[in-house]
């Protein structure tokens, strides 16, 4: 019996353990931290061996294959020892993909991947396709493969998940954009992170499709350096394309072979240039899969967006509160500030991943009247923005941040939570951060 060791007892780890057990592996789960109670209960009820707050080498280094959860860096000691012993260390995406013959749609990018993946899933659901959304969102891919024999999987993929693939191959790959992110995990080398994102096309053939933002300078520069075998379908605002999607002032146009889909930009459900690109990506996938144009049009016009991504929470005393907790990097916060037209009270901060805050200075100077820092270490934020605004305050709790924002807000203002940072210093994750924000706003 082959031995599968799972490092990390979270969503992807427990999903892999369940799938591994169902496929006849001897399974052991090891987590250096504490395993959440809900996951412990799943492991116990399925008779899967586990340990927490330690990695016992004798129980790990005898594995035939190891699934490493995406949050664990390769540089940790136990992973290095596995490499030395030449034991395969893969991601959950790689492990699960071996057990399904479904059509895979993989979506990655520094920003926009959750919105695009959710939008693609929404179109396919509306078309009556047997589809499941998984990966970096909702259920783990492994759990989805185990419980749901879908015909299509729409997978949101992080760079960490792509780092651990060998044979994984999506039939349709989407790369929404690339901007510096997670550089702390890539030795502060942008090119390492770029290469990681491009791994999504590593195993594609000429029978597959690669949809990408041709206006993104990094992608435009690097696409020539990779061996792209798949059929390329660019998304662009800059020129008309024979195949792919383009947009002019009025419309988005998607062309696949001789088939054309046209829709007015003003009819798209989500506003902002970046969401127009997300809509172009989602409708290109739908066109490839020959979804009826009427269904694509309705789905592009009625999609509600994603929780924690520019989510309008409440208007109180004519002050709009917006939850953009999912903005964990500079580029995402740039989009958020760009999309707001009112005077803004900006809640920012968390775990800095090597951020270049200076890129936000023009927008902050133009729109932001107060900065509320929400993080353990705010030195860099203070250094860059301390002199730009009349009010610069530091807080250690969401309740305090929201109450301060309420005091500073005047009729017509916007309060924007768009942290540009990871959340792990004060919160469990960005969802926890966003929900705390919403709950505190509702309590005002």
What does this structure look like?
This protein is α/β, with parallel strands linked by helices and 444 residues long. It folds into 3 domains: 3-90, NAD(P)-binding Rossmann-like Domain (Rossmann fold, 3-Layer(aba) Sandwich); 94-302, UDP-N-acetylmuramoyl-L-alanine:D-glutamate ligase; 311-442, Mur ligase, C-terminal domain (Protein-Tyrosine Phosphatase, Chain A, Alpha-Beta Complex), CATH 3.90.190. It has helices at 11-22, 37-45, 57-60, 77-84, 92-97, 113-126, 141-147, 159-163, 190-198, 217-222, 273-288, 293-302, 330-339, 361-367, 379-385, 398-408, 430-442, and strands at residues 3-7, 26-31, 49-52, 65-68, 89-90, 103-108, 131-135, 152-156, 172-175, 209-213, 231-236, 244-247, 251-256, 259-264, 311-316, 319-323, 344-348, 368-374, 391-395, 414-417. Strands 7-8-6-9-10-11-12-13-14 form a 9-stranded mixed beta sheet, sandwiched between helices. Helix 1 runs parallel beside helix 7 (141-147), helix 6 (113-126) packs across helix 11 (273-288) and helix 16 (398-408) crosses helix 17 (430-442). The longest helix is centred in the middle third of the chain and has 16 residues, at 273-288. The chain is globular, with a radius of gyration of 22 Å. The termini are far apart. The model has no long low-confidence stretch (mean pLDDT 93).
């Amino acid at each position: 019996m082959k031995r599968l060791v799972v490092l990390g007892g979270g969503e992807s780890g427990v999903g892999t353990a369940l799938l591994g057990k169902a496929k006849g592996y001897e399974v052991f789960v090891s987590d250096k931290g504490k395993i959440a109670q809900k996951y412990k209960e799943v492991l116990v009820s399925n008779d899967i061996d586990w340990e927490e707050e330690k990695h016992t080498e004798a129980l790990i280094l005898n594995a035939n294959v190891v699934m490493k959860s995406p949050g664990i860096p390769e540089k940790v000691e136990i992973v290095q020892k596995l490499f030395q012993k030449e034991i395969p260390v893969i991601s959950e995406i790689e492990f699960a993909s071996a057990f399904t013959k479904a059509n895979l749609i993989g979506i990655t990018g520094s920003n926009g991947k959750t919105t695009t993946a959710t939008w693609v899933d929404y179109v396919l659901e509306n078309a009556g396709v047997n589809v499941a959304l998984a990966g970096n969102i909702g259920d783990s891919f492994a759990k989805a493969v185990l419980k749901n024999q879908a015909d299509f999987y729409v997978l949101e993929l992080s760079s960490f998940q792509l780092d651990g693939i060998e044979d994984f191959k999506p039939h349709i790959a989407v790369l929404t954009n690339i901007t510096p992110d997670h550089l702390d995990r890539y030795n502060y080398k942008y090119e390492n992170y770029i290469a990681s994102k491009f791994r999504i096309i590593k195993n594609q053939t000429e029978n597959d499709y690669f949809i990408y933002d041709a206006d993104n300078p990094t992608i435009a520069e690097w696409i020539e350096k990779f061996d792209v075998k798949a059929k390329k379908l660019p998304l662009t605002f800059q020129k008309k394309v024979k195949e792919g999607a383009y947009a002019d002032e009025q419309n988005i146009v998607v062309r696949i072979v001789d088939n054309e889909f046209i829709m007015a930009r003003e009819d798209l459900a989500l506003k902002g240039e970046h969401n127009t690109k997300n809509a172009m990506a989602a409708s290109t996938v739908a066109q490839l899969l020959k979804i009826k144009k009427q269904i694509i049009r309705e789905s592009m016009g009625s999609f509600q967006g994603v929780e924690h991504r520019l989510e309008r929470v409440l208007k109180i005393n004519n002050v709009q509160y917006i939850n953009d907790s999912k903005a964990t990097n500079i580029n995402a916060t740039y989009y958020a500030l760009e999309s707001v037209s009112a005077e803004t009270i900006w809640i920012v901060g968390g775990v800095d991943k090597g951020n270049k805050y200076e890129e936000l200075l023009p927008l902050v100077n133009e729109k932001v009247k107060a900065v509320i820092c929400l993080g353990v270490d705010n030195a860099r934020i203070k250094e860059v923005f301390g002199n730009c605004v009349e009010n610069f305050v530091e807080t250690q709790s969401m309740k305090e941040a929201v109450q301060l924002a309420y005091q500073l807000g005047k009729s017509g203002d916007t309060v924007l939570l768009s942290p540009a940072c990871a959340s792990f210093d004060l919160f469990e994750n960005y969802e926890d951060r966003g929900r705390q924000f919403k709950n505190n706003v509702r309590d005002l």
